[in-house]
Amino acid sequence: MIEFGTAREVLFASTLPLEFEDQVRLVNSDGSLDARATVVAVRYHGGRKAVAVRFVGEVGNWIIKP
């Protein structure tokens, strides 16, 4: 679940072993969002992990536009 988003970045909690510069694919349940992104920050706190990623290119079906 995306917790926060801008036109270029999103933040979400994750249990995946993600690290800086990893590549991820963001897909929503109905398939209308399918975007590639790069991990730009990882924050660990109390056994939980927050991940910030930046979209690799233009995202066609994204609710926030520049």
Describe this structure in words.
- This protein is mainly β and 66 residues long.
- It has one domain.
- It is 0% helix and 52% strand.
- A 5-stranded antiparallel sheet has the order 1-2-5-4-3, with no helix packed on it.
- The model has no long low-confidence stretch (mean pLDDT 89).
Number of domains: 1
Mean pLDDT: 89
So how many helices?
A: 0
| Global geometry | globular
Distance, first to last CA: 22 Å
Main beta sheet strand tally, sense and closure:
5 strands, antiparallel
Radius of gyration: 12 Å
Low-confidence stretches: none
- The counted number of beta strands is 5
How helix-rich are the residues, as a percent range? under 10%
Q: What is the topology, as strand order, of the major beta sheet? A: 1-2-5-4-3
What structural category do the secondary elements indicate? mainly beta
List keywords for this structure.
about 70 residues, mainly beta, five-stranded antiparallel β-sheet
Sequence-ordered SSE layout with sheet pairings:
Blueprint: E1 2-5, E2 9-13, E3 23-27, E4 34-45, E5 48-55
Antiparallel strand pairs: 1-2, 2-5, 3-4, 4-5
Structure described in brief:
By secondary structure, the protein is mainly beta. It has strands at residues 2-5, 9-13, 23-27, 34-45, 48-55.
